[in-house]
Every structure is written in structure tokens, then in C-alpha cells.
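User: Hi! Is it possible to get a structure for several chains at once, not just one? Here's what I have:
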Amino acid sequence: MTPEPVGIKRELMKGNVAICAGAIAAGCRFYYGYPITPQNDIPEYLSAHLPPIGGTFLQAESEVATINYLLGTSASGKRVMTSSSGPGISLMQEGLSYMAGSELPAVIVNISRSGPGLGGIAPSQGDYFQATKCGGHGGYRMPVLAPHSVQEMYSLTMLAFDLADKYRNPVMILGDAVIGQMKEPFVPTSYVSTVPEEKPWSLTGCAGRPRRIIKSLHLKDDEIEAHNWKLHRKYMTMREEEVRSEPTHLEGAGIVIVAFGTAARVSKTAIQWARAEGLPVGMLRPVTLFPFPSREVDEAVSRADAVLVIEMNTGQMLEDVLISTRHHDKIRFLGKPCAIPTPEEILQEIRSLAGEIGVKAGNVR
Amino acid sequence: MKNKAKEKFTKQVFSRPRSLLDVSTHYCPGCHHGIAHRILAETIDHFDLREKTIGVAPVGCAVLMYDYFDVDFVEAPHGRAPAVATGVKRAQPDRFVFTYQGDGDLAAIGTSEIIHAANRGENLTVLFINNTTYGMTGGQMAPTTMLGQKTSTSPYGRDFRNDGYPIRIAEMLATLEGTAFSARVATSTPAQIRKAKEAVKKAFDMQIRGMGFSIVEILSTCPTNWGMKPLDAQKRVLGEMSGYYPLGVYKERKQADFA
Ligand SMILES: Cc1ncc(C[n+]2csc(CCOP(=O)(O)OP(=O)(O)O)c2C)c(N)n1
Ligand code: SF4
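Assistant: Yes, the chains can be modeled jointly so their relative placement is included. Here is the combined structure:
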């Protein structure tokens, strides 16, 4: 474990509140949202903490309106955030498409729940498709960050604002009820911006400069085609430059787990137990779900004897894993659509997988 | 002597408003979007707001209005202009923010956003163009379509048993506490245009003074989709439409709530 920086205290905080702290640290002063379980601590916290520091909190009439408040504030050149859960994120899809088309930055937090429909409020990773493939119209992409600790709820929120500004694009944080409600100590590191503060495209009134227009409509054939390719190149740059993943005990691991967020968090415990039994298990945890760490996944799968994909759904990231590698015969799946897999369950899966492929327990330390 | 006479006789009395660009618009002959644009631009100039204004464009025939105005503009999804404008105004309370919306945009798909913007007393100004149809998509029925009016999706005429009744927005929004100003005007005669300008000025003034939400509904024409000659379209506004949609000021706040 790295030593704590001098002068920075650890704090005990809920994941959802750590998102708020990260947003405020990153200079976000505008939050709009509509209540939905299991993310209500975010608007509740910000309604109390934004106004005293000169920020704006506004409860919207719907998520449809919410995302369009974001569009307006983003067009004004300000950092802005919303949070919701599956059904509310569904209502934001039109606005997200417009923001992607108009190249407007914003941070959208999805503390997802199980679906489809009203589904349930149990922890779930059922929104992987909607987040990473983008549910709105026209074909666009956005970076999706998947925190697995309170520390990351804080730090990835700060990163999300920088990525949003860097690419002029919405960025989503995909969490779930466990990571949102979980309290654990974290270090509130200070925010260091990696992007310029000026937004030479923002709408501020055309005093002393030509007017500016922010739009997504391009009626001429060649114009919309050029715009589509421009956006495509931007998404390709994200794929080149923004992939983030965390390897754990990958060296010499015969069995590799691929999991994100809460599923990865629980897997870490199971991996500890399995390694204590001498089973050579490691993990590759995608931190960015888009761009997906395809190269890293392929390398890990190539070197492993078997790969166990674990998700709190019936197999969504699994499809990206399958696209990333040719070694489909090595891949197994453990899915829990509406519940947290227990470390015991995962350990059991690891043991039977080890038996199946003939991985011998040995000294893995 | 000679120069003085020249000065007297060459004084410019009519010109393009500074806020309007010198371009031709895509509007059909006899369409009143152009008149509404001009009133809007003149009022921006009147209050010297060009460099402080952010306009929010609708989805409808006026979707390209940002090509005609020399001010900053953002495009909103269909019906969401009041929400986008809210986001702009909250971020920049010292800027002048307006939306310009048709009756499909404002009175159908965007009813939730307009009602809540008004009810919050959002300090915005809205120009609402009521031409009793969806112009851009080819003249389908709108919530404002008159009973009996034939459109491409009410080929037998609008029937209240199937489609309900034409909705009166200016009156409805006037009932909301947050609304500072709500009026309905028309632009089918020079006298009406003068009155319309006065109403738009008042609406602007409400925002400038921080009084809250202001809206001017403008009874407009769509000769193309009404299947009428421009002159007959004017007659329809002056007769049938003004009968169901009475012109007038429905709310005018005299004193701000915070005063
Ligand atoms: C979500 C969505 N639904 C439908 C449309 C198609 N559409 C474009 S303009 C329009 C109606 C515009 O009518 P109105 O607001 O009355 O304005 P006008 O064209 O008459 O000025 C519709 C339905 C769209 N662009 N987006
Ligand atoms: S279709 Fe109707 S509303 Fe649209 S520009 Fe033509 S006349 Fe005007």
C-alpha cells in the first residue's frame, strides 16, 4: 500500500457522497437531477452543499428535462453533472445523443439498478449495454468509467470531468447500489486539472467576437458525413489514449477473472482465498468500459488456461470480451443479474474451473 | 441650404435590424415566421442586447433561425428549448435568454418543459408561434389545430371525440404563479404588428427586470400546409383563429415577488 501523502487525512465516506466530493473538487458547480433510488444521496448531498459555495442545485421535472438543463449549462461553458439510475438514464438518451452530436461535455452518473422496465432496486450491472453502446440515436460513443471503491468514486469523478472537457463529450460513471452505499475510508487527494480552463466554443453572448452556434443539425450531405467522420476519429482517439484497466496477480495466472465495479471488488476477496489455497488466479479489471481494454483482455486470455467473466447481469461485458479475443473456448461466465455474487460462490467457481482444466494447486506466492 | 435639404430628405427610416443577418430565409411566401423574426431582432436591438443574448432554437420550421440572427445560439431537441434555456440562464443569469418555439414543439412534445419553466418563474422569454399545424413535417395535426380543421393526419377534420380540443397556451400559462407576462398577439395587420412589438418589448422587459417567466403567443400562418393563398391565410387568422384564440394580455406582473 502506498503511504498517505503528508497532511491529507483519510475520510470515511459513502461512495455516492465521494462522487459529490470529487465533482466539487473538480470545480463542478452545477447539478441537476430527478429523484430515483439508489442514488438519492447524491442530489440530497449536493442540494445542501452546492448553494453555500455559490453553486446551483436544481431538481428537475423529469430526466428528459434534466439532460437538457445540462445541455444548456454545458453550452455556457460550465462544468455540470447529473446522476440517476437505469429508468432515468433511459429518459436521457435523446439529450445524450444531442450532446454528443453538438460536442458538449458533461458528467452523467448512473448508479444502476436491475431491469428491464421498473425492474428492481437490487444492485445490478444491467446497464452495461446502455452505457457502453450508447442508447440514443445516430451512433455516438462516450467514455464510461467503472469505479470499484469509494476512492475511485472520488478520483474517477474528477477524471470524468477532465475527459469530458478534453473530448467535448458526455462521460458516464457506471456504479451500482453497493459501491454507492458502501462506506470506506478514502484519501481526498487534491484535484489537478489536465485540461485548459478556457472553452473557446462556449456561448456567452457575442460581445467583441463573431457569434457562435452550438448545434447538431447538418442538412447538407457532405457536411453531416464529415461531421460523422470527425466524431468517429474522436472516438478512435479515445480508444487509443484512454483505456484504463487494473491487473491483479496476472503474472502466471492460469485462471483469469475479468470483472468490473462491484463484481471485481468481490472477486478480489475470492482471489485472495483461492491463492491461499495455492490456485494461480488473477484478474483483469476494466476501469474504462468504453474504451474497452480489448488488447489487455486478449493478452490475458492468450496467456491463461481459462478465463472467468463475472458480471451482475446475464452477460453483457461478456460480448466485449468475446469480441476482444479469438480464444472463445477458454471463456466461462458467472452471472448474477439482480444480486451480488458472494466470494464463496466465486471461489467455488474457481475451484471447479481449476478441476475442469486440470490446473494444479501449487505455491503461487 | 442644399446640404440641409439633403439631410432632411435622405434620413434613413427603415433598415435591417442589427441583430438580423443579411441573408434570405427559407420560409414560404406568406409565412409569418419572418415577421416574428423581425420583431424579435428589433426588440433585441431596442434593448441593446445583441452581445448579451443567447437564443435557443426549436425543432420545427424555425430550426435554422440561428442562420438568420447575429447572436449566439444553441439548438435544443424537439420541445426541450425551455429546459435548455433554463440551463443557460442558471449558468449565466446576467445574459438575455430566449426560446422561439412552434406549437408542436411547445404545446405537444414540450408541454412538460414549458409548464415547469413557467411555474419556476424561470427568468426567460418565450416566443410561441401558433400556426395550428406542424409546418416542418408537412402539416400534421397539432394540439392547437382547430376543430374541424383538415390536416394531413386529420383528413376528416379534427374531431374532439378523437383528438380533444385546441389548447390555449397563453391563458393556461397565465394561471401559473411563476409567469410574469403572458399575452397573445397576431401579425396579420400593421396595427397588430405594432401591438405584437409592444407585447414582445414587455416580455423582454420582464426578464431584464428579473420578474420571471414571460411568453408571447403569436397567431401565425402556414399558407403552405393550410392550402391557402397568403391573403386567405391572413383572413383565417383575423377571423376563425382570433375567435377561438382571443388576442390580449393574460397576465402582467406589476411587482416582482422578491420586491
Ligand atoms: C423527438 C422528435 N419527434 C419528432 C420530430 C419530428 N418533427 C420535427 S419538427 C416537428 C413539428 C414542428 O411543428 P411546430 O413545432 O408546430 O413548428 P412549425 O414547423 O409549424 O413552425 C416534428 C414533429 C423530431 N424532430 N423529434
Ligand atoms: S411550412 Fe408553414 S410554417 Fe413552415 S415555412 Fe412554410 S408556411 Fe411557414
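The pocket of thiamine diphosphate (ligand 1) is lined by residues B 59-62, 78, 102-105, 129, 131, 133-137, 142 (CB under 6 Å). The first helix of chain B runs from residue 2 to 9.

User: Great, thank you!
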